[in-house]
Specification:
Layout lengths: L2 H15 L22 H8 L3 H8 L8 H10 L4 H11 L18 H9 L5 E4 L5 E5 L6
Antiparallel strand pairs: 1-2
Length: 143
């Protein structure tokens, strides 16, 4: 297990052991608890993920959950803001700042301008890849 994944696994186990099942709103089922805190399946239930998925996270496997799953895990484990930030950092969501999306400007080739000019008197419209209007050409109809 890689170093960062081991830290994630240890953090999840520690956070799970510090949660009180009664405080989490889980009914007493009468089973003997071998470890303090919540069981893996209880954390998975509270977070809305499968038990297998949570177990793989806690084992430190290479899984990158979505920000929504990380938020749900933070709520299920009753983490404070610092704990949630640390969890996101361990998973890799907090350390990488999101790259601003730059839109590539789509240019119209000169040949297309010539084609539109050849449509003498006809209305025409040239749309780009994202269905944005690149060249509007409005002619008066029925003049």
């Amino acid at each position: 297990m890689a170093g960062n994944n081991r830290e994630l696994a240890d953090f999840l186990r520690r956070a799970r052991s510090q949660c009180d099942p009664a405080h989490a709103g889980l009914p007493a089922d009468g089973r003997v608890r071998r470890v303090p805190g919540l069981r893996r399946e209880e954390v998975a239930l509270l977070a809305g993920v499968s038990t297998d998925y949570y177990a793989r996270l806690e084992q430190g496997r290479r899984i990158v959950p979505s920000p929504a799953v990380v938020d749900a895990l933070g709520r299920a484990l009753e983490l404070d803001a610092a704990g949630r930030a640390h969890l996101a950092d361990l998973i890799g969501l907090g350390s990488a700042s999101p790259r601003p999306r730059t839109r590539e400007v789509q240019r119209v080739r000169p040949g297309l301008h010539q084609l539109l000019d050849a449509l003498d008197g006809e209305p025409a419209l040239l749309l780009g890849r994202r269905m944005d209007v690149l060249v509007p050409r409005q002619e008066t109809l029925g003049a």
